[in-house]
Structures are given as C-alpha cells and as structure tokens.
Design a protein that fits this description.
891 residues, alpha/beta, eight-stranded parallel beta barrel, 45% helix, elongated
Length: 891
C-alpha cells in the first residue's frame, strides 16, 4: 500500500530531510526539525505523489488517502490536546503548500482552519480570550474566502477599514471582541451575497476545500510564471503540510516573524529578520503592517524607535538565536526560519535554505569555509551562477546631484533608474518597448510577478525585508526599496506623493536598493568593482573547473571588460561588427555594391588599415591569450543603403551613380538573407575580401610583437562551412596571404585555421572537415536555427505559446537544446577528434553563458565556452559547478 501521509511532532517524525522530493521542502524540514527535538507543532504532510495523482485523475484523491489522513490527524489532536471540530477543545489547523524548492508567495496557505460559529465560541471559552478567538475567526473567513472560494480579498479589507474608521482607530489590534464579531458576521454576509451560498460551517468541508486549493495553486498563473522563470519542472508537484495552529495573536506576549541566520542582503553573521507582536504570519509577509527588526543592532542601524524582539522578548529571542545556530550547523547553510511565539513560548514553523543576494551568498560561502562549516568545493556550489549578474548592477555615483524624495528599507541591493509604472501590466508593456521601468506599488502580491520581472527596480510603500516584494526582488536580482511609508500611492490616478513632490506615471525616478533611498529624476550610476569575497570564490572556482572561459568581443573595450572579469581569451571576434561606424560603413557599402574586382579592391584598400588597427588594439588587450577571429559573415541586407542620401554618399565615394548602385542593391536582394550569400560563400565568390582580412589580422599580430607585446595566439575562423571543399579553398587563400607576408616581412606569425560549426551538415561531416580544420567553434545560435528550422528574429512571436503549452521546456535560444542540437555537437566532437585527436573544441553562441548549457559542454568534453563579457563570471562559476556536481558526494 502506498504511504500518502507522513506524520511529525513530539520529537519524532516519519520523514527526514532527504525526502524533499516526496515531502516537499517544507514537509521534509518540519520532519527534520522534529527529529532534532526542536519545538515544532505536530502535524502531517501529504506527499507530492498525491498532487501527481490529483492531476492525473481529474482532481480526485487516492482511495486510501482519507483513512491515512484521518489516523494521522487524530494523533495531531492527541499531541495538541484538541479535537478537530470539537467546540469544547477545538483543534485549529494551518494548511500550507510545500514544493521541492522554495516558491515564496506563489502558492496558497490557509490558517485558523476549523473555525465556525460553534468552535469560535468554544475557543473563546477555552482560552478566556474572546477577542483572540474572533480575531482568528475573521482572519480565517477572509483567507479561506480568498484562497478556496476565489473571492477578492479587497472586499474584506474594505469592511475592515470601514470598521476601523468608524471606531477612529488605525490598527487591527485596537479593535475589541465585539468589533471583531461584527466584522466576522459582515464577512460571512459578503460571502453569501457574492457566492449565493453560505460560508461553510462543516470543518471537514473546510479542510478538504483548503487541501484542494493548495493542490490547485500549483497551476495558478503566478506559480506557472514563477516556475518558468526559475526552471522548476511542472511535474514535481507540491506537498501539503497540515499542522496544529499556534497563535501569535494571543496578546502582547505573543508574536510571529521571519528570521535569517545571516543578513540575506550582505551575508553578515547576525540574526536578521522581522516580527510583529500580537499578529499572525500573513501580517508579516503580506506587508499589511510594517514589522519591527528582530535584533537590536539592526533596529539601531535603521534608526527604528520601536523595540526589537531582542529587547521586547529577550527569552524568546535567545531561544530563537540558539535554534538558528543549531539549524545552521546541522544544515551547514544559512537558514530562513518562520516562527511564532505563543504566550512567551517559541515554536518553529519552517526552516529552509535562505534566499540571498549574490553579495550575501558570496560572503556567507567564504565565511562558512573559514569557519570550518563547509569546504571550498561546497562553497563554490553555494552561489547560483546567474545570481552573479546582481554584482554587475550599477551603483549610485556618489558625486552625482540627487533630490531625495523618500526613504524605505534597502531590500535588494543595486541601483536602478527608470520610468514609473503603477501596475505590473504597465511595467511589462513599457519594458517591451525597451524602456527602463521602476514598478511602484503600495505593496506587491504574487500576481505582480510578471511586472516585477520586467522592471529594472521595485519600490513599495509597505512591507519589510521579508515582504513579498523584498523576497522576490532578491531572488530576481532586482534592486528593491520596500516600506517607504511616507509615499502616498494612487495607482488608479497614476501618481505618488511624497511631501510636496508629486511623481506621475512615466516620470523618472531612481532607487538605491542598498540604502533604501528614493530620488526624483535620473541619477548617475557607476559600475561595481568585483573584489574581496568575489575574487576569493572565483579563485576557488578556477581551481576546479576544467573548461576554459573565453569571451565574445569585437572591440578593445569589450576585450578589456572581459579580461577584468577573468576571460581567458576571445572565442569569437565578429569582424562585421567592426564596420558599422560612420567612418567605415560607406567603404563597406562600396565594397558590397561593387560590380568589379577592381572596384571592390579599391574599397578594401580603405578598410585594410582600419581592420589592422582594430586587431592591434584587441591583441594588446588580450596580451598573448588566444583570439579567435571570424572572417566576414554579414547578411548583406544589414549593410546595404536604405535611404537616398546613403546611396548618394556611396556613389560619391565610388565615383559611381546612385541609380547604378540602387540597381545593384536590388540585384543583391535575398528572400532569406540568413541562409543566403554570407559567410564562406561570400569568401568563395569574392576571395579578395577574406584575403584583405587575413592580411589585416596577420600584419596586426606582427605589429604587436614588433612593439614587444606577447606573441598572439591566432585562430582564424571561417564561418558557415558546409563542405570540406569550401574550407580547403579559403584556407589555401589565407595560407597564400601568410606566405606573401613572410616574403615581405621576413616573418609570418603562427596561426591556426578552423571553422564555425553552425550547419547540421558540417556537424555530420565533421570527420572530413577536421582534416583541414585545426579547431571547431560551435556557433550554437545559428546551429539552433538551422537544426530546428527556427528564425531567431521571428520565433519570439510563437515561442511564448510553446512554453506556455509545455511543447518545450526552455527557449532553445537561451538554453541549449541538448537532445537535438546537443547531439549534433557531440557527433561533431566525436567524429572531428577521431580524425584529429587534439582538435580544439569550443562554443561561441550565447549559450556559452548559460549554466545548463555550460554543464552540457563540460560533459561533452569541449575545451572552452565563449560568452559576452558580462557573462564571463557566470560561466567561470558554472564551469566549476559542472565538475563538482558530477563528483562531489556532499553536493
């Protein structure tokens, strides 16, 4: 018989930490904390296999689930000294989701479940606290109606606000028992009016409604979006944890909160988090009330006046700190914990590896290695490669003029400037028009995730460091300022007011996610310096990785940036990108439109010194590291004149007529230029073009050496080869140029000739191509296009539908199609090395900066990956993790 339910509590559990695939992260960690003897309220976990069954069987449950569940629930009641649905000793429950990996705020939770008219009165009688009982009841009605019944929570908020206004109070805690009874009644009336049926009184109906809602939330739009953004497989499913309630809303000796064992923004080792007295957990994470810091030192740094937990509840704080240290030692990682204090007693509700910024991840990993908690190899795996992009965010120029208009909490570091958008839809639309956006909200909710992803930065008036906005922004690497309470935001009118300053939709603001400051207008930004913990961790990564990491660089500035980030050479220098400057484009157009070899050579004579100077500067920047230069590969339409004045300009330079050039341009028109007269085909037709480039490259290498520079490791790459004969013809031309230079100068530089594998035929015939080619560089952008028959320029119109309908799991232009394109790479590598055992292999498409694609390259035995300069740190770390995840048993 399949076991569908696993119980925990009373210092023991049926599950453990390594069962997260079955119990979800929350269920596995609740079981582990129970096994460690920590104060965990008793409960049970319904496995992820039930979720899979639920969706495979028309949203029904396994036949034996309810019997297993009922037996486990009776044990929960025994331990908690209550009975579910019993008015005399009511047992209230929390029902929470729990996927394998943390998906904060993406799925549904129901608290205080089991309350109805009878059990609410019984809870008041049992506790002697009528206010607490009806506060819990009105919370339950609102949450259940939202999560399970599908009603808009704003309607309930309006009822609550109206009641507070009528009483002349600001806080929920200022309402008395009679007020809360009235609110509960009004809530239920609203439910019956809107749904035309009463709010459920049957606690079993409540329970299974909540469980179904949690399973249902696995496919909510926000959860689907989050999974796609974070590459979480749909078929993992979620577990459901059902746990006896403990109450942070039992008065001034009770509280609830969220804490990190280290600062999630900086990595500093201190208990960092927030709590609220006389509250429940949703009050903290939803940003409805701005919470207080847990630690005194943090309160003092933030200039807060209200007491921290350390000051207000010293014993509970001490217990929490001790438990946090125990959990960090046990899991050997920074922990994010949820807790409740009920009448002075601390209870642990959750622990998980804490989400953190890249800066914090680096510091925590390096510090933990120095503390002896982990070794260097584990430290290298503790930082997500993609998160390093956060470190490349600009910061505010300290010398730039600034007009500060607000201050909140620095919830996610980095600075951003952009146009104000007040809704997620506005942000997404503006970003789609290539405009920088700051999403401004009173508080964010999971429904805003698409706008948060589109925005450059996020600003909220409510919420703390653990609010939805803060947690999601840190995970995305977006700068975020939360809890800027002085802002009056009116999204409907499209404006926010701070003092005497009014900011309207489309106005520019700047936020600093490190300090929490908000500025009017655009503030100058500076690029960061990657030193300290970054340098230390990257050194450890470099010690273990096997793949070399090069860069795609077409200018000396790109090359210098890449060297700063640790690039070990250039894997792709695209020579056509050197021709778009205003002082060159006329000569390039003259070359393309020439209808005789003499006219073409006249244009090439103008381009030769320009190309040579470019290569000299690039070679100097790379200081003897390998440089792969791809000969001209232009889709000709990108260079042809478009306007009348452009034709006239080329005509003057070529001593021709605009009409003749227009006729030539029409003759050169191609229906599909990406598969047309480009790459090696251009070199076959007009060999003088590649001869000019070869001369420029070789003469530049000699010039650098003559000036005392490091000898250049030259790799000349011929693009778009499909046939060995193409490569043979052009390689002979290049060799002829080298021989001529040798006669002229008495010396020719060393060089290698290779090709870019970007056509399926080239991959399949790699064995014979390797007879001539000394290296292969896989151009995975075009290899993906030609293998899948997809245009990178046009596929965006329908790839979104493919992703949404699960036709494909990833965009193949972002992460390599390892099953299709990847197999071609492996075939080419195997056949090429069979011919030439020391054949050098690398990739130079954009996939060279994607961690999943890098792991494939490592597993396939490639020598290097090449990526854009700002992806070099990502690639270095991903290459190291590719080694460690295959070999290190603790990872």
């Amino acid at each position: 018989m399949t076991k569908w339910v696993y119980a925990f509590g009373d210092g023991k559990a049926e599950g453990k930490a390594d069962m997260r695939n079955l119990l979800g992260g929350k269920g596995a960690n609740l079981a582990e904390m129970s096994n460690l003897g920590l104060p965990v309220p008793p409960g049970l976990t319904i496995t992820t296999e039930v979720c899979t069954y639920y969706y495979a069987n028309k949203q029904s449950y396994p036949p034996d689930l309810k019997d297993q569940f009922g037996a486990a629930l009776r044990e929960v009641g025994y331990q908690a000294k209550g009975n579910f649905g019993d008015p005399d000793k009511p047992l209230l429950l929390s029902v929470r989701s729990g996927a394998r990996v943390s998906m904060p705020g993406m799925m549904d939770t129901v608290l205080n479940l089991g309350l109805n008219e009878k059990t609410a009165a019984g809870l008041a009688q049992l506790t002697g606290d009528e206010r607490f009982a009806y506060d819990s009841y009105r919370r339950f009605i609102q949450m259940y109606s939202d999560v399970v019944l599908g009603m808009d929570h704003a309607a309930f908020e309006q009822i609550l606000d109206d009641e507070k206004d009528s009483k002349g109070v600001e806080l929920d805690t200022e309402l008395d028992a009679e007020d809360l009874k009235r609110i509960a009644r009004l809530y239920k009336e609203r439910v019956e009016k809107e749904l035309r049926k009463p709010f459920p009184e049957d606690v079993q109906e409540q329970l299974w409604g909540a469980i179904g809602a949690v399973f249902g939330s696995w496919h909510s739009p926000r959860a689907n979006t989050y999974r796609k953004l974070n590459n979480i497989p749909e078929d993992w499913g979620t577990a459901v944890s059902v746990q006896a309630m403990v109450f942070g809303n039992r008065g001034e000796s009770s509280a609830t909160g969220v804490a990190f064992t280290r600062d999630p923004a900086t990595g500093e080792k201190l208990l960092y988090g927030e709590f609220l007295i006389n509250a429940q957990g949703e009050d903290v994470v939803a940003g409805i009330r701005t919470p207080q810091p847990i630690s005194k030192i943090v309160r003092e740094r933030q200039g807060g006046k209200r007491a921290s937990m350390e000051e207000a509840m010293p014993q509970a704080f001490a217990d929490l700190k001790a438990i946090g240290e125990k959990l960090e030692q046990h899991y050997r990682d920074m922990q994010d914990v949820e807790f409740t204090v009920q009448e002075g007693k601390l209870f642990m509700l959750q622990t998980r590896a804490g989400k953190r910024t890249a800066e914090a991840a680096l510091k925590a990993a390096v510090d933990m290695e120095r503390e002896g908690l982990i070794d260097r190899k584990i430290a290298v795996t503790r930082v997500e490669p993609e998160s390093l992009n956060q470190l490349l965010h600009p910061t505010l120029d300290p010398d730039a003029p600034k007009e500060q208009i607000a201050v909140g909490l620095g919830a996610s570091p980095g600075a951003a400037t952009g146009e104000v958008a007040f809704t997620a839809e506005e942000a997404e639309k503006l970003a789609g028009d290539n405009r920088n956006v700051i999403l401004v909200r009173t508080e964010t909710s999971p429904e805003d995730i698409h706008g948060m992803h589109a925005a450059r930065g996020i600003l909220t008036a409510r919420g703390g460091m653990t609010s939805h906005a803060a947690v999601v922004a840190r995970g995305m690497g977006r700068p975020c300022v939360s809890g800027a309470g002085m802002l009056k935001i009116d999204a409907a009118r499209g404006e926010m007011v701070s003092g005497n300053v009014t900011i309207r939709r489309g106005d520019i603001i700047t936020i600093d996610g490190a300090t929490g400051l908000v500025f009017n207008g655009k503030v100058g930004l500076r690029q960061p310096e990657l030193t300290g913990d970054f340098g230390t961790l990257m050194t450890w990564a470099d010690e273990v990785r096997q793949l070399k990491v090069r860069t795609n660089a077409d200018t000396p500035a790109d090359a210098a940036t890449a060297r700063k980030f640790g690039a070990e050479g250039i894997g792709l220098c695209r020579t056509e990108h050197m021709f778009f400057d205003a002082d060159r484009i006329v000569a390039v157009r003259q070359m393309i439109l020439a209808d005789s070899e003499a006219d073409r050579k006249a244009a090439l004579d103008k381009l030769l010194p320009m190309q040579r100077d470019d290569f000299v500067a690039i070679f100097k920047e790379m200081a003897g590291l390998p440089v792969t230069i791809r000969l001209l590969d232009p889709p000709l339409h990108e260079f042809l004149p478009q306007k009348e004045e452009e034709f006239e300009e080329v005509a003057r330079a070529a001593n021709s007529s605009p009409a003749k050039l227009r006729a030539r341009a029409i003759a050169l028109h191609e229906a599909n230029p990406m598969l047309g007269h480009r790459g090696c085909r251009l070199g076959i037709t007009y060999p003088e073009i590649y001869e000019m480039q070869a001369r420029a490259i070789l003469e530049a290498a000699l010039a650098v050496e003559a000036e005392g520079g490091e000898p250049v490791q030259l790799e000349i790459m011929i693009p778009l080869v499909a046939f060995k004969s193409e490569l043979d013809i052009l390689a002979a031309r290049i060799s002829g140029v080298a021989a001529a230079i040798g006669k002229e100068r008495g010396k020719a530089p060393d060089y290698m000739i290779g090709t870019m594998i970007e056509l399926p035929r080239a991959a399949l015939r790699a064995g014979e191509i390797a007879q001539t080619a000394q290296f292969f560089s896989f151009g995975t952008n075009d290899l993906t296009q030609t293998t899948l028959g997809l245009s990178r320029d046009d596929a965006g119109m329908f790839l979104g539908d493919y992703l949404a309908k699960n036709v494909i799991a990833r965009d193949p232009f972002v992460s390599l199609d390892t099953a299709g394109v990847g197999e071609l790479i492996q075939i080419a590598a195997e056949r090429g090395r069979k011919t030439r055992p020391k054949l050098k292999l690398g990739i130079c498409g954009e996939h060279g900066g994607d961690p999943d694609s890098i792991r494939f390259c490592h597993d396939s035995g490639l020598d290097y990956v090449s990526c854009s300069p700002f992806r070099v740190p990502v690639a270095r770390l991903a290459a190291a993790q590719a080694v460690l995840k295959n070999s290190h048993k603790d990872i």
